[in-house]
Design brief:
Strand order of the largest sheet: 5-4-7-8-1-2-3-6
Helix content: 25-40%
Number of helices: 9
Radius of gyration: 21 Å
Largest sheet: 8 strands, antiparallel
Oligomer: single chain
Length: about 250
């Protein structure tokens, strides 16, 4: 199998980062990762896009029965006292699935992926070509912008002292005819700052007017508006996308 094919490598890197790769395949990919700069870049790209999301996920208090199920599985005494159906793996996961209905299996799956990603990056920063920081990740500003339906549409990220920003559409953006999609930095205090015009799909790397630290240090959110003036200095229409700007270090 040719592991250097870009599309195959992207899929394998995603499975490796999210922890969904088969147990027998994972050691093989780890060996490839130690030798292949292309594989390292593919994994680093997944990490850079996913790891910062943990800061944007609000904490959720799980139902009390979740902890009971965990105790029944991990504590021998509790497991012996429980009914056979409840202590079997199928019974536990069945009850756990039912307990999670109220707060979303999808949210749990997403959170697990983020945890696995953060752990992988922390333990393998040197392999991924990242500078060692206190958080074991490259110091970056990162944002995921969502529409009114809560769907993630756009990601934007820049290294802390970098002078470019990478903007990637996670799903196509329907830009009205005669308008542009304009990305704004929204400081805690002060007027919005124009960053760049956003494409309808794909990804772009845009030069910044100053180092990211100077632009985003006091920015808590990012937003996108549709503007008829491609060089608008201030938003003239409501925001169609909004998201947190996270300092990741």
């Amino acid at each position: 199998m040719n592991y250097e094919q870009p599309e195959l490598l992207k899929k394998l890197a995603g499975a490796y980062v999210l922890g969904t790769m088969a147990a027998r395949a994972r050691p093989r990919f780890a060996r490839l990762l130690a030798e292949s700069p292309q594989a390292q870049r593919a994994v680093a790209e997944w990490n850079n896009q996913l790891a910062p999301l943990y800061a944007t996920v609000p904490p959720i208090q799980p139902p009390s029965q979740v902890w009971d199920l965990i105790a029944a599985k991990t504590e021998p005494g509790a497991a012996k006292a429980a009914a056979p159906a409840a202590t079997s793996p199928r019974g536990i996961w069945s009850r756990l699935g039912a307990a999670l209905d109220g707060w979303g299996r999808a949210a749990v799956a997403f959170a697990l992926g983020v945890v696995l990603t953060a752990g992988l990056v922390s333990q393998n920063a040197h392999v991924l070509g990242m500078h060692h920081m206190d958080a074991a990740l490259p110091a970056s500003y990162f944002g995921i912008l969502a529409n009114d339906q809560g769907e993630a549409v756009l990601s934007a990220g820049s290294h802390r002292r970098g002078k470019t920003i990478k903007i990637k559409l996670l799903k196509p953006l329907a830009i009205p005819a005669g308008s542009v999609a304009r990305l704004w930095a929204l400081p805690n205090d002060g007027a919005p700052v124009a960053i760049a015009n956003v494409p309808a799909s794909g990804a772009v790397i845009v030069d910044l007017d100053a180092p990211a630290e100077d632009i985003f240090a006091k920015v808590s959110r990012l937003g996108v508006t549709f503007e008829t003036d491609p060089a608008a200095k201030q938003p003239g229409t409501p925001f169609v996308l909004l998201g947190h700007c996270v300092k990741f270090w």
